Amino acid sequence: MKKIYLLVCIILLGLNSISIAQGNRKEEIEKFRKEYFTRQLSLNAEEAKKFWPIYDEQQIEFQKIQKDKRTRMRAFREDFDSMTDAELEKAINDEMIFRQKELDLDKKYHERYKAILSVRKLALYYRAQEGFKRELIRKLQEKGGRPPRGPEMD
What would the pLDDT profile of 119-141 be if each residue is shown by its tens digit? Predict the structure, then answer.
């Protein structure tokens, strides 16, 4: 389970830093994501029209948090053995701050989703998030490809 979680994290973090050469792959993943969620949530045209702009906005905010996290945590990964206890403690605290930012973002968008989706569709959305990750991993493995990677991965 931890391996799957790690792979999913790598995929999600890599999605926001795919190079231009992998642009088509990113577009394919985004197309698959929209088809998958639309199908799983049974979104009608009106719901989709409201849902996707909010979802896309959330993803942009999430990617900003991830980029900041990668930048700040680089030293933690690269200089771990030479870091003082105080530096390690700061790095750990920074990680907790990033986790809290992600949770705060989820809570913020949960309220926005509640305004446009029924409780059942909102529950399906959260359930579909995990299903999407599994399906994306499966599709990438079938194509013989690895998950997209950025220059720095956590």
Answer: 999 999 999 999 999 999 998 88
The pTM of this model reads 0.71
Q: Are the C-beta atoms of 100 and 65 separated by less than 8 Å?
A: no
**In contact, 152 and 72? CB cutoff 8 Å:** no
Q: Judge contact between 2 and 142, C-beta under 8 A.
A: no
CA Rg value for the chain: 17
CA distance 65 to 73: 12
**Distant-in-sequence, close-in-space partners of 25: CB < 8 Å, separation ≥ 6:** 18, 145, 148
- Give me 143's structure tokens: 């194509």
Domain boundaries, the chain: 2-142
How far is 96 from 24, CA to CA, in rounded Å?
Answer: 34
d(CA 94, CA 88): 10
User: Which of 35-49, 70-84, 116-130, 140-154 is least confident?
Assistant: 140-154
